[in-house]
Fold this sequence. Notes:
Blueprint lengths: L13 E4 L20 H13 L4 E3 L7 H10 L8 E6 L9 H15 L4 E9 L4 H6 L2 H10 L3 E8 L3 H10 L6 E4 L12 H10 L4 E4 L12 H10 L5 H10 L4 E7 L3 H11 L7 H15 L22 H14 L2 H10 L14 H5 L6 H12 L2
Parallel strand pairs: 1-2, 1-8, 2-3, 3-4, 4-5, 5-6, 6-7, 7-8
Helix pairs in contact: 1-2, 1-10, 6-7, 8-11, 9-10, 12-13, 12-15
Amino acid sequence: MKSWNFDIYDGPKLGFGLMRLPRVDGTNSFRSTTPIDIEQVKRMVDLFVAAGGRYFDTAFVYTGSEEAAKAALCDRYPRDSYYLATKLNASAWACQNAEEAKSELKTSLERTGAGYFDFYLLHGIDASNYKRYEDYGLWDYAQEMKREGLLRHVGFSFHDSPELLDRLLTEHPETEFVQLQINYSDWDDPGVRSQGVYDVATRHGKPVIVMEPVKGGILASPPEKAARIFHETDPQASPASWAVRFAASLPNVMVVLSGMSNEEQVNDNLSAMKGFQSLSEREKDTVTRAHEALRSVDMIPCTGCHYCTSGCPVEMHIPEIFSVMNNYKTYGDLQRAVEDYAWRPGGPKASACVGCGQCESACPQHLQIVSLLRSVAETFEK
């Protein structure tokens, strides 16, 4: 893996996202209370480090992730051999006041045993919550903790418009980096506007850390005609590797985070980024054609982050429901989809939605979840 020259980071471009770690029951939701499979995570970390990987990303709100980082990474490797990032979340579902928000850093330090964090992020900022970070004084708090030596570099992760990003970077020039959702599917998407936010960060001179390069796994298993386009160009490369390389080829991208859930995914990502070279013109054309094929399928652009499920009054497993719907949209097998819907998501069915809208206010993708759930119910609950 090739190293790139950025003032605040000198490691390889591939980062290990610790959000979707494997659970002992075979799932990988960051909201799950099922224990993480620590022994498997240790093997995954060892594979990553042995290949030269150094950047690891976790968060206060990823259930069990910071503790897994301690067991698999911090307790087993010298502190100066890796970079560790975590995040402070001030959304209403994560904390209720400034004191609770600020206490997250102490908890994260205790959970990881890291001593300090190389990269610290104000987490998931968008139009619905950015004022909470201001009102709670968290921008100044992060800088104070940096002066105390608990943080090396401070930035934020962001899910909103180029206009809001421009405003935040103008008001907070002390920001050292930004974490953005970037992938070839969202590059020109009018809702996500990946290219727009990337261009804003670049104009402000802020290095970009990429999240969701495979869009929550959607781009790892694209519809057949999109997968065929990739296969015809390079039969050995997985669709996921194309997605990671697209993001990594952008010149102002410092790190591409891949949320890895098993050893196979670690090996696939390492293979894709070994001896990394930016996409050639022919490869860029391949991605463009695959993107056009993907757009012909009306997929629900859910990344499976589960932010929508916190506070749901009926405890609906919304991302799992949307996954079944996307499988139906991709493969067109209604009977199979209805069978999957009957048991795979677990919890209440889509028709149980009460329309309160709390899920929509929490969704980083700004999806019209209530309307989408009605459509699911009409399709599978006839």
